[in-house]
Amino acid sequence: MNSATVRNLLVRGMLAGLGAGVLALIAAYFLGEPNVDSAIHFEGHHSHEHEVEVVSRSLQSTAGLATGVLVYGVAFGGIAALAYCFALGRVGRFGPRATALLLSGTALLAVYVVPFLKYPANPPSVGDADTIGKRTTLYFLMMLLSLLLAVGATLLGKRLAPRLGNWYATLIAVAAFALLTGLAYAFLPVVNEVPEHFPATLLWRFRLSALAIQTVLWAGFGLLFGELAERLLNPRPAVARSTGQAVAASH
Amino acid sequence: MAQSVAQPTAGNPAVPAKLPLKEIAPWAVFFGVLMLVLLYFVGAEQGATSVFNGTDVHEWVHDARHLLGFPCH
């Protein structure tokens, strides 16, 4: 029965990831694409190396964007659902929906926001092609580090909770996470490859739209998956029946 | 005791039962790897490393890669 629960949660996670991916795609198309176009426009004006277009811009900004964002949504949906199976009933007194939203908020922070604050998203024409190897390694390293620190902080908080109570245990766990993240920020190398004369406002708007896409994705995932998980784990008729019994028993 | 907590009662939302780790592990390993492979193709293929020759995968997911925050080129 439990193995079936894991499978059902995984399937629902991937579906919720797909749904959240659709929402993120809408945000990406309307908020992000105008900035990508402006950045490519800048690139066209300031560099004279014209590469052969393998995939046309109109395909990149529609079908290509959709493929990337939806696959990303499904993949993270699946991973988050598996993490949810571990977290369920273990992180504290949270029901299925609250656990889903908590997990998804933590994922947004650990998987995206924390790496983003050190190595933010860059529009086309920002970034030196020769350093792609270094930048990719640093980005994934930061992501992995942040994820491990988040898991570590959760375990620390859980361990301290019986002695210090939930409030202080959570404060110490969050403080430990912030401190170690700060150290990682301080010691990992800085990447600054913004070309001269690249508009600062365009860079800001691009990065803000990138953050908006992730916020939509994870908020959408948390709410959708929470709803699906709630219905799977606490089916309505059963809840109604046992509530009825409890009320009957208490009177 | 953990079992009794799992029973929903009126006005007190149920704390769900824990799923045993050995039930989760095989799913987590197999699907975890599969999902990471998907993420690799969206986020990094034909950038720093390549499984396939050429730049088709890179160019196809180009906009998504930029907007999702991956280092692109």
UniProtKB/TrEMBL annotation, chain A:
Keywords: Membrane, Transmembrane, Transmembrane helix. InterPro entries: CbtA_put. Pfam families: CbtA. The chain crosses the membrane at residues 9-31, 63-86, 98-117, 137-156, 168-188, 208-226. It comes from the Bacteria. This is CbtA family protein. It comes from Streptomyces griseoluteus.
UniProtKB/TrEMBL annotation, chain B:
InterPro entries: CbtB_put. Keywords: Membrane, Transmembrane, Transmembrane helix. The chain crosses the membrane at residues 24-42. It comes from the Bacteria. This is CbtB-domain containing protein. It comes from Streptomyces griseoluteus. The lineage of its organism: Bacteria, Bacillati, Actinomycetota, Actinomycetes, Kitasatosporales.
